[in-house]
Amino acid sequence: FSLVKYFRTLANCFAILTYRPISIPDDPQYTSDDVTGVIPSLEGDSAELRETILSNLRNGISRIIIVTIHSNLEKAQRVAKEISSKIQVLSVEHPNKRNQMCEAIPHVTTKITIFADDDVIWPSTMLPWILAPFENPKVGGVGTSQRLKREDKPNFWNFLGAAYLLRRNWDIIACNKIDGGLPCLSGRTVAYRTEIIKNSEFMNEFRNEKWKQYILKADDDNFLTRWLLERGWEIRIQKHRECEVETTLEGNSKFLRQCMRWARSNWRSNLRSLRQGCIFWKHPWSTYAVFQTTLTSWSLPYDLTLAWLWWFVTLEMEPSSRLIARVVAYLWIFLFCRLVKYLEHFVRYPADLIYIPLIPFFGYFHSICIKAYAFFTLNVVSNIHLFFLLIFWIDLYRYG
Q1: How many CB atoms lie within 10 A of CB 3?
Q2: 186 domain residue, yes or no
Q3: What is the tens place of the pLDDT at every residue in 89-110?
Q4: 168: which of 59, 83, 180, 289 is 20 to 30 A away, CA to CA?
């Protein structure tokens, strides 16, 4: 019973320990002159956007295209004029990340396109690393590892955000190492061969993907990942300190709203991936370790059942041995098996060790409340519903 769950943990540990990034070649085929950055931005001007642009420019990127909405076009143009002549500004009428991306794609003339969110900071050494896997002509998309930008006075919400990114890094690196698959190439920073996204069939399906009768505005990175995998393109993840990007997440109860959005995306995308028979045959480990867990991974009932079974297994043991066996097993079931994903973070920030109890508790809360609620509200297109009204009233009570 426990082997089903912990085999995945042990195999992923082995994959993480044996993972090596693709080295930068001595004479690279692609350089910064072959890269255009596309940044969809709602506001058109913010401190985060300016920092994102400057980090792109420090990498020597050939060109940057900012796509905002019509009402903020002038602000974005002012930013471009103040910072660099390398920046082109476009706009669409309504906020829609997919439409903003599609607005920029026809203007890309370089061989590689990098999509980036407007709150992501690149290290100055990133471009050579993210370009290195493209030396293989079969590679169509490349992602990097991510970490949360550290706040001056981090709170437990910041830790939960950092933990989310750590879990995500863990999953994508392990899956990519074992069978070349992965759950999703994050749109926070991801590189594609321009020839793939300039395809007219891609553009049409990307703009008009539906969930039932609803045209999806979100889930753009999930769509792009499935598009590559279903058409035989390879994907690579570069995990290295010199290409690790920083990002921001909500540092308050709004983080739960982000979790709800991600949970809905996971349900929709993973269910679609499971319906594609080729995913299992091409990427059996990714199917087992990630895609099918959307249906089967409900941690609290699973862990409670395992703890209950162990209680009965140890009934015939001597009292002192029984106590030790139960304590060790329960610590493993409820805590230690999860901690391995966060060791890197605790080495960097030992002060966050006080948040260790949050790891299992938030995992159970996410499984019971967020994941389950996301499944029953997959068709919700508004952010105002019962779950978030509850958060609103909690905040109102706390802060007046």
Answers
A1: 8
A2: yes
A3: 999 999 999 999 999 999 999 9
A4: 59
